[in-house]
Specification:
Shape: globular
Protein name: Periplasmic ErfK/YbiS/YcfS/YnhG family protein
Domain L,D-TPase catalytic: 1-107
Family: Belongs to the YkuD family.
Keywords: Cell shape, Cell wall biogenesis/degradation, Peptidoglycan synthesis, Transferase
Helix content: under 10%
Order of helices and strands: EEEEEHE
Strand order of the largest sheet: 1-2-3
GO molecular function: carboxypeptidase activity; transferase activity
Radius of gyration: 14 Å
Length: 107
């Protein structure tokens, strides 16, 4: 099973055996282009990560943690002398929210 984020299309697809099961429109951080390099850069990580746990007590709707930073991210950050950041989540917008998706907070 895979979750594939296509940043240029603001979409997320859930795949099984190479076939799309579901597809969603998504919002990302304020600066989605390019790979996340450091803590606070408002970028969305690019690469292979594991969805490793649900965070039921999150302030965001149905949060799932991703395994950012991976080893490659850590090595890059160390070489640059920066902190890679962490606690990156995929989450939805609460269906009871009065805001339309295009006005929802992006991160």
């Amino acid at each position: 099973d895979l979750v594939v984020i296509t940043k240029s299309e603001s979409s997320m697809a859930l795949l099984r055996d190479g076939k799309i099961l579901k597809q969603y429109r998504i919002a990302m951080g304020d600066l989605p282009a390019g790979h996340k390099l450091k803590e606070g850069d408002q970028r969305t990580p690019q690469g292979r990560y594991t969805l490793d746990y649900k965070k039921p007590d999150s302030a965001y709707y149905k949060s799932i943690h991703i395994s950012y930073p991976n080893e490659e991210d850590k090595l890059r950050a160390k070489a640059l002398g920066i902190r890679p950041g962490g606690m990156i989540m995929i989450h939805g917008q609460n269906p009871k929210s009065p805001l339309p998706p295009e006005q929802a907070q992006q991160y």
